[in-house]
Specification:
Elements lengths: L4 H12 L13 E2 L12 H13 L18 H13 L4 E5 L2 H9 L8 E5 L4 H9 L3 E5 L4 H11 L6 E6 L11 H10 L3 E5 L18 H4 L8 E5 L9 E5 L1 H10 L1 H4 L6 H14 L3 H17 L12 E5 L3 H13 L2 E2 L1 E3 L10 E5 L6 H15 L1
Parallel strand pairs: 1-10, 3-4, 3-5, 5-6, 6-7
Antiparallel strand pairs: 2-8, 7-8, 9-12, 11-12
Length: 380
Amino acid sequence: MNLPKILLEKLHFRKENNALRSLKPQSQLIDFASNDYLGFSQNEAIFNKVHYYLATKKIIRNGATGSRLLSGNHEVYFEAESYIAHFHQSEAALIYNSGYDANVGFFSAVPQRNDIILYDELCHASIRDGIQMGLAKSYKFKHNDISDLEKLLQRFTANHAEIYVVTESVFSMDGDSPNIVELVAICEKHKALLVVDEAHALGVLGTEKGCQGEGLVQQFQLQDKVFARIMTFGKALGCHGAAILGSQDLKEYLVNFSRSLIYTTALSPHSVATILIAYQELAISYTTIKQLEKNSEYFNTNCPYLRTPISHSSIKSIVIPGNEKVKEMASYLQENGFDVKPILSPTVPEGEERLRFCLHAYNTKAQMEQVLLLLKKKLS
């Protein structure tokens, strides 16, 4: 059956603008593209410990068999959510099937009609999709701009509705972070509820003051001042799923009203066990996290082409305007053995196309030196 004409036209438009997406096999090149920041997805110890955990508990089930509210709330969920809540110094944790599900489930269910959502203009698509599905009114503020946020807070504080302020602790395109201390202070001043997506910070940020990769919020010991945090496991934890952290009352509310949790088959025991074991591994991975920090510092110091302000996370961006130009540059690096991906418009605004480097604890100094030499050869 033929595709409707309007859909074919949209595909044709993407092709004309050199922006057509396609599914490709995984690369065997040197990895500067994946979100596997700590190498946990290929960690043999985690793999073996998950098998041992399931075998010891005599859990021989390939699937959850149903939603968590019906037949799928198996025993591994209880242990994993308890561990995650303790690790993040949160009253409660609720596991979702993915980071997308968590954000859609939260923002479509929690803010109510007449409430106000103020979100950073660069927030992830999953946050924006959840907001669009909900009943609250939403307004974006300039990226990481506290003064612009405060203008909006002053505008809406007198409305006597709940105000939710939404940001990310590490933004996925530039790898930059908000001033979380100032953000918490401004939310307290205006009695707004702060929600922080920590997808790209978990396992990456937080080695100060006794932290072990818990993220930006705990790095500054602000967990008691944040209404909700979204922790995603498909990045540094190397597995799948996500959790919303908050009060026990918030967890109970989500179990009753969050449709992306209620109306889906639960994760399998193996999937949830992998989350639990990955967290246990993270708790003893201080050296690995510090190596990732060192790699980030080396890249910042030795790459003159980075987008400013320079990111101190694992994500580094080099803006090369134009889909065709940035794809050519990515192909050049790939032909020389390095998996570096181009980020095209409309994923980023036109003129903001870029190479995005994702650094890992397992990237060697020699690998970074070589890819930087290739960049210099092409960009100088």
